[in-house]
Amino acid sequence: MPTTAPKNSPRPKLPNGVRIYAMSDIHGCAHLLEQMFAVIDADMANSRPYRAIEVFLGDYIDRGPDSRHTLDLLISRSRRRNTVFLKGNHEAYFTSVLEDPSRTADWFQFGGLQTLMSYGVSAAPGLSKDEQSDLVRELTSAMPPEHIAFLRQLRPTFTCGDFFFVHAGVRPGIPLSEQRESDLLWIRDEFLQSKRRFGKYVVHGHTPVKQAELLENRANIDTGAYATGNLTLLSIQGNSMLAI
């Protein structure tokens, strides 16, 4: 069911003529991503916004069934549309595995096995140090170079008008310009429990909720796509927000 923004406080606004479509935590659910692209395309054909920006809040890979095709879709989309891709903790961890294969076992706990499988690579548990290095080499050989470049070039945040887009959230009491990347990618309780304003209205994912939460100071649009089959799309124009 669509969710609309709270109405009892001054609403954050985008610049005139700008519409933003935001998604988070796709986690290899390429089939759901394709469905949401169709929703965006139909909406744009119907309403023809002056300037549309598609903002993706990270966690494109791991857990779900098809990380490879998800990245193919996002990279293809970037060539045709005005897109912004943010870094999630899963992308940060994956790139750290490429630098340090000894982290492979921990990556498997985060859903890395599903990513491996999407590139046609398999692995058994309990790999030795040498086997982990061999596995990472096999994976990087199997990955299109543009996929690795895409994952390495992700940005931590995006700001437009009164909105601040980020994967996990921000540390309360710290100016947005001084936030640590570790908090932007990983924070949970300190941010989620805060009722204070953060300087801008924060749109984030990272912590799954049953349905999108459009609160007074933030919006959480991670609805656990890989587990629930529900990938949420947030549309913002002017001071209006609608989660589908």
UniProtKB/TrEMBL annotation:
InterPro entries the UniProt entry points to: Ap4A_hydrolase, Calcineurin-like_PHP, Metallo-depent_PP-like
Superkingdom of the source species: Bacteria
Family matches, as Pfam families: Metallophos
Annotated Calcineurin-like phosphoesterase domain residues: 19-209
GO cellular component: cytoplasm
Family annotation (SUPFAM superfamilies): Metallo-dependent phosphatases (SSF56300)
Protein name: Serine/threonine protein phosphatase 1
GO molecular function: bis(5'-nucleosyl)-tetraphosphatase (symmetrical) activity; phosphatase activity
GO biological process: one example: RNA decapping
Annotated source species: Bradyrhizobium huanghuaihaiense
